[in-house]
Write a structure and sequence with these properties.
Largest sheet: 6 strands, parallel
Order of helices and strands: EHEHHEEHEHEEHEHHHHHEHEHEHE
Shape: elongated
Strand content: 5-15%
Number of strands: 12
Strand order of the largest sheet: 3-2-1-4-5-6
Distance between the termini: 55 Å
Radius of gyration: 23 Å
């Protein structure tokens, strides 16, 4: 297939798919497809509730159209799949969205078509899971009648500096010719350039270790924070001192959630165990990072007890619910660990986050955020997410939310040392 003959469809219009479709839609005809009719309706009127793409950017993508009608996919010959790849309650990969997207495409797949996957998976998943679905549903033969590619997403939700076009893209294809087609296609929109991997498996592995590396590094810093807290040493002071060395990595302790760092390592460990290897360091890092919510609550309760604040039936405000600052993304947020652990102590909890959709928070986690915190109402205040609204409040305004005797826990270092009672 020549690049001029490409008729493109992007399947899945979330945090990854929509920015990608918009960039392509500035240059060529693109069908943006999603099974969620409400999502399609909002995009058609120029609104993106994820806040990843502005109304102006949507209007600039003049060649982009939206649909939730699977029949319209038949007009495309290159499909880019950008659906979620979460984990289940047992921390095992849940490939259901990927399999369903493959079935959807398989029903309209034609000879000569190419399917490119961007969803994060373990090495081998594209050719071992997705391709067999395409073959079974379409009745076509892989690398004879149709082809596959893999180009892992590198979206950072809420980041307005590192956008799709400014982040270098890894590409790959199931044959040398398809690899070149995939690479050429992405080069049309990626200003930062591309890196053509030697195989689909290499590209899959590259993606999954990017966030595994970050996860393990953050786990190390979290463990150091636990040690330094026991020693009465301020962790941030230590990190700033160590950071004066040119090659010291600037990680910070905290909760590790989101759709990537808190999830991707489990895809790699799943595959490793499937081939008979038990990963030690990766799983140890995951266990430690997943335990941080419990640790935060234990520290809060200990400080409340020292100050003779009755813990049972006390009232605590958790500020922030999203998995990171200045974005509405609730996926795999570990703030819920804090909320649930507080409940184990029979503590009444209010959650306040001006970025989240209350209906989504209720649906996903059974949490109904409050519209506005009451002044002088709380025995404890935990700043769990560094939204700019919270940072701009300053210590005095945050303190004003607490009762005369309260504990202020600055989990995200938005205050200067000494302005809060606790920080990691």
């Amino acid at each position: 297939m020549d690049i001029q003959d490409v008729k493109l469809a992007v399947v899945g219009l979330g945090y990854v798919g929509l920015p990608l479709a918009v960039e392509f839609g500035k240059q060529r005809p693109v069908l943006g497809f999603d099974i969620n009719a409400r999502r399609i309706d909002e995009l058609r009127v120029g609104r993106d509730h994820t806040l990843e793409v502005s109304s102006q950017e949507l209007s600039e993508a003049g060649h982009l159209r939206f649909s939730n009608d699977p029949a319209e996919l038949a007009s495309a010959n290159v499909f880019i799949v950008t659906v979620p790849t979460p984990i289940d309650e047992y921390k095992q990969p849940d490939l259901t969205p990927l399999e369903r997207a493959s079935e959807l495409i398989g029903r309209i797949l034609k000879r000569g078509d190419t399917v490119i996957y961007e969803s994060t998976v373990y090495p081998g998943a594209t050719e071992e899971v997705c391709v067999p679905v395409l073959e079974r549903v379409s009745g076509l033969k892989f690398n004879v009648d149709f082809y596959a590619g893999y180009s892992p997403e590198r979206i950072n939700p809420g980041d307005k500096q590192h956008r799709v076009s400014s982040i270098r893209k890894v590409t790959s294809g199931s044959t040398p010719e398809v690899a070149e087609l995939v690479d050429t296609l992405y080069r049309q929109i990626i200003k930062a350039g591309t890196h053509k991997a030697s195989s689909i498996k290499v590209a899959e592995a590259a993606k999954v270790i990017e966030n595994t590396q970050r996860d393990v590094n953050i786990a190390l810093i979290n463990e150091l924070a636990l040690i330094f807290n026991r020693m009465g040493i301020d962790t941030l002071d230590v990190l700033e001192a160590a950071g004066t060395k040119w090659n010291f990595l600037p990680f910070r302790p905290g909760l590790v959630g989101g759709h990537c760092i808190g999830v991707d390592p489990y895809y790699l460990t799943h595959k490793a165990e499937a081939i008979g290897y038990h990963p030690e360091i990766i799983l140890a890092g995951r266990r430690l990072n997943d335990s941080m919510g419990t640790y935060v609550v234990a520290q809060l309760v200990k400080m409340m007890t020292k100050r003779r604040i009755q813990v049972q039936d006390s009232h605590v405000l958790v500020m922030g619910l999203t998995f990171k600052e200045n974005c509405p993304d609730l996926r795999n947020t570990r703030v819920v660990d804090i909320v649930r652990e507080l409940g184990e102590y029979n503590i009444r909890v209010d959650v306040y986050d001006p970025w989240v959709d209350p209906a989504e928070a209720k649906h996903e986690y059974g949490i109904t955020p409050i519209a506005k915190p009451e002044p002088a109402a709380y025995d404890g205040v935990i700043v769990a997410v560094a939204h700019h609204q919270f940072a701009e409040m300053g210590a005095a305004a945050l303190r004003a939310l607490g009762k005369p005797e309260h504990v202020l826990y600055d989990l995200k270092y938005i205050l200067a040392r000494g302005e809060s009672d606790l920080r990691l």
